[in-house]
Amino acid sequence: MRLIAIALVLTLPLAAAHADGGALAGIKSNGVIRLGHLQDSPPFSFVEGGTPQGYSVELCKHVAQSIQQQLKLSSLRIQWVPLALQERIPAVRDRKVDIECGTTTWTLSRQQEVDFSLMTFVDGATVLVRGNSDLIRLADLNGKKVAVVPTTTTAGALQAALKTRMLATVVVPVSTPEEGLAKLRQGTVDGYASDRVVLLGQGLATKGGNNFRVLDEDFSVEPYALVLARGDPDFRLAIDRALAGLYRSGEIEAIFNRWLGPLGRPSTLLTALYYLQSIPE
Question: Residue 189, exposed/middle/buried by CB under 10 A (0-12, 13-18, 19+)?
Fold first, then answer.
């Protein structure tokens, strides 16, 4: 009996792990995939007409379609879960969503909590300013006020850049991008810091967007990726298989043009990212 009891104790963790089966097992069982999205980060992840839209959102739709094919499901329903910037990592970590489809930068510290897919984009952080200001480079913000969402990688990169350049810039924390843009529009801050393409998208989407422009200088590199829970290699493989196929086929170019084309052609760095991640099947 003692030997049987020991055997049961040793096999319980394996049985629990087998019962769990990871995200793919849950998706196959329920016929639903839960995709987290941002509501205010155009052109990557935003809501228009009550429907999630954007570059990252479309990548997640493609991933969902690929997973449906990989699991041989007759149908797969997408459950869209709106997330604030501060909720992205906890929502994935706590398995409230299967994938987060936004503008999350892949960092090593974040990888202690969650896992990441192949990279989906690369950007740099900068500052949005009013169009009639004389601010051109980061050094021009000495003695000025810059708003930033404190839970983003931009916040840490901004503080580091200001310290390196010994600039006496006042960093003003804001809860949301809308709050940062509102403060900039009202003149209570001189700039709002975020990723360059996101700032361009937000500026274009804002009423009177022509009154904004970005600095000529970036102060960080921001590699984006889709976010999933740690410890689920089969799910990550399914996601990476979908993205690599998208890069190999060249379909990524149409998706880029649809959402980012108005802002210019893909950078040399982004083109290299697509090419290097066209992993063969």
Answer: buried
